[in-house]
Structures are given as C-alpha cells and as structure tokens.
Amino acid sequence: MKKLQVWLPLLFSLVLIVGMWIGSGLRQNIPYSRGIFESAKRSSVQEVIDLVNLRYVDKVNTDTLTDDAIQAMLSHLDPHSIFIPARYLDNVNEELQGNFEGIGVEFYIINDTVNVTNVLADGPSDKAGLQVGDQFLKVGDSAVAGHIDGDRIKKLLRGPGGSEVQVVLLRNKQVVKATITRGTIPLYSVDASYMLDPTTGYIHLNKFSGTTYEEFMQATEKLQKLGMKQLVFDLRDNGGGILGEAVDIVDEFLDDNKLIVYTQGDKQARQDFRCKRPGLLEKGKVVLLVDENSASASEVVAGALQDWDRATIIGRRTFGKGLVQEQYDLTDGAALRLTVARYYTPLGRNIQKPYDKGRAAYNGEVAERFHNGEMIKGDTSANHTGPAYKTKSGRTVYGGGGITPDLFIPFDTAGYSQPVYALFNNQTFSQFIYTYYMQNRPYFSQFKTPADFAQRFDQLGTAWNTLVNFAAKDSIQLQSITARDKAEVEQRIKTWLARQIWRMPGYYEVNNMNDTMVKRALEEIKK
What we know:
Elements: H1 2-27, H2 44-55, H3 62-74, E1 82-84, H4 86-97, E2 99-102, E3 105-110, E4 113-119, H5 124-127, E5 135-139, E6 142-143, H6 150-157, E7 164-171, E8 174-181, E9 183-186, E10 190-197, E11 200-205, H7 212-225, E12 230-234, H8 243-251, E13 259-265, E14 268-274, E15 286-290, H9 297-307, E16 312-315, E17 323-329, E18 335-344, H10 359-363, H11 365-371, H12 374-377, E19 388-390, E20 396-398, E21 407-408, H13 418-424, H14 428-439, H15 441-444, H16 450-456, H17 460-472, H18 483-511, H19 516-525
Parallel strand pairs: 11-12, 12-15, 15-16, 16-21
Antiparallel strand pairs: 1-18, 2-9, 3-4, 4-5, 5-6, 5-7, 7-8, 10-11, 13-14, 13-18, 17-18, 19-20
C-alpha cells in the first residue's frame, strides 16, 4: 500500500502528459469556428510587421507602420472609407454623439495665458462661478500660465463626468480658486433659430449628430409659438453626419408615407426610409439654403425636399456625397468607417460625384469649380454626369455630382488683399474681438438682444482704429487696404462682436441682415 502511494503521483503525471500529446494531435484534424476577423494563417502584412519588429536594424513604431498599411489599402476604395486611429477616435465620436465631458468654457491663448472667452450657461464652470475674462493660472497641480498650448489645456480640463478639477484663476488682478465638477457639454447642431420677420423663421444646422433632430424640433416648436408660418432652413457648410437624424427631420416636412431616401449596396439589400408620422412643417413655404460644403445627410434632406417639390433650393451645387458608411470598432481601440451602400433620393437619384481619378482629384473637385467658372455662372446641364429626372410638378433634377439648386447664387470671388488674408487666417482678428469686448464691457452691457445691437452699435469707427493698431503688433498693416476690404472687415467686427456676446445665435442674427442668400430667400418666400 505504501509503495502504491509513492508511485501514484508519478502515474497521474504520465497519464496527463500522454493525454495532452494525444489531444494535440487530434486537434489538428478537427475543424473549429473562427471569429469574423480571424484567418487560418497570418497575412503577409502581419508577417512583414512582425519581422520588422523582431529583426529590423533600428527601433520602429510598428503601430505607425500598421496604420500606414491600412491607409494605403483603403486608398484603393472610395474616399469616404477611412481608418481612425485609436488616439483620434474619441474626438471623432464626440462630433457624432453631440457632446463630450468637460467644464464648459471657450478660451483663447493670448500672450501665453489661457483666457476664458465664453462660459456655457448652466454648465459646470458657470455653476462653479467662472466668468468671461478669467485667466487660468493652475489646473489641478499643473501651472498653465506661461508656455501652454491648446491640446494640453484641453487634456487638463476634460475628464469623466462627475469628476472634480481644482483651478486657480486671475480675475481683475485678484487670485480666485474654484472647484469645477465636470459634466456633459453639448455640441449643438442648431447654431441659430429666430424670426426673420413676423411670419418667417430661420434655422441653421451645422451637422447631423445624435441630438440634431431633438434640437431641430425644439427650435421649430419655439418658432411656431412666435408665429412662424414659413421657414428658411440653412444647411450651408453642413458636412452631414447621421443619416437617421436627416430622415427624421425630412419626415417633419412630408406627409403620408412618402419615400424619403433608400440605400443599397453590393452586400446590402435595398432599405427604404419612409415618413412615419404627421410632421410639424407639412404646410407653409420652405426655402432651403445650400452650398458647395453641404454634403451627405444635408444632401439627403435637399434631395428629398426637391424631389417632392416641398422646398425651393437656393444657393450653389452641393458637394456630391451619396455614400453611406458604417463604423466598426477594432480590437486595438481604433475604428474603420467603411462605405457599405449608396443612397438614392425618392426619384432614384444617386448624387455621388465620381472618384475614379483618385482621392486628391476628388478632394480638389470643389476648388476646381472656382477655376472653371461654375461658382460665378452656376451649374449647367453640361456639368451633369448623371441622368435627368422629372418631379411631379415638372421641374428637371439631375443625378450625379450633388444637388443643383433651383435658384443659383454666385460666390463672391473678389479676393482680399494680403493684409486682410493675414488678419483672418490666424488668431489676430479673434483675439482682437475678445480684447476689445473686455475693454468695453460696460458699453456692450446696454444691448439686450442681437437685433438691438445691430441697430444701435455706434463704435465701428473706434473699433476700426483700435484694430489697425492691434494688427500692427502682428506686422499686419491695414491702413492702406481698399474701401471694399475695409467694409468687409468692419462687417466682421460687428458680427464677431455679436458672436462674442451671444455666441453663434448672435453671429447669425446680425450677419444674416446682409447675407445675399437670406435676402433672396425672403424674396422667394414673399412671392
């Protein structure tokens, strides 16, 4: 019995080893299920990267090699299939979801000092007592007065919602301490919504994110309570976003179960998106403003309203993006945004412009419109690469190359002088606006609304003279610019001061008073 106890562990070990050997041999002959991204063997790309990592003479960042290899592969697909490295993914997703976690301030860095230029109403910083004009001295344990850049200050101020950050500020030459509890900061889609006249509303959307439809409905309901009977809907410079948000907005303009858009791809069956509910905007005139930067979801809206004769489209030919992407998260934290389908307007138009000449030519196509004269003369039938269609009312619309407006508004191609370009192409002008506002806050406090400001602001001459001296410090000489350039700069002084006080709603309300497209839209509304 004692001998058996001595040899028993050894017997168990031998049996275990033999079992593992037999199991290993059997496993090679048994098929098994692999995940969607697994392969029976490593790809050549992975083999090369592994060899570089193991054998290359110098140290190499193989993550960069992998990213470059993926980008090179995607360059053979359409221009909108893109790889998003993990380090950029949060910023990309923030735009789509419509919010991020932070403290709720806008800032400029002037003379190496972070200046608070706007505080989000009822946001974390507002609740903590921060004010416009505050200057950051410390964030947490990090001193930020001195050499600081925008990326670093953003990283210090952002963080998980509910977390606290201690800040030290300089306010009116006094040191102030504050504790800010971070929260969700909205990235608004609706830049402005107000009444152009007693019966005409105006709404401007800058993107289609996860909160866009909700924001649009709130704006619409507010304007209807103010007496809105017709709408100027502005999608200029709106590069698109989430298709579903665009579909929901179009549903507010069309009745019954009308087709809004449909998608279809080689590996994706046709999917129709139709109206599902009664809309708030099914009656009353609608004018839609678009330009060469209106793309994707903006073109879904424009195409549907044009095909159903629901709106008059004013502006310039849109970008021409008729492809649908889906985003796939990768195991290393990166993501692939892959084109999976094309979308088609209710009449069957696909307005995707050609991309067979490569990405550089595709991305430069809008610039080419300036060179070939389209921005001045407008689009013609000779420019269209797609077939013609007829709407129910008999107007002709085209597929391929964007949405052509019903009424063309030329781009103002008169160029600015070099000093004016220099003024607008760096932070000199925006810093001047903030500085001038801070130096004259008692004066600006008398204006309660953007409309009141637009009518009674009488410091344009003083502001111009101050700007001339301010710009000279950055070696920008404005004294001898043309009368036209001076008029443009003065107009921007007024609109940007309105933005400083009331953010984007103030900017649009003041700027639209002299906006050519908005004026033309009002003429069309009154016909």
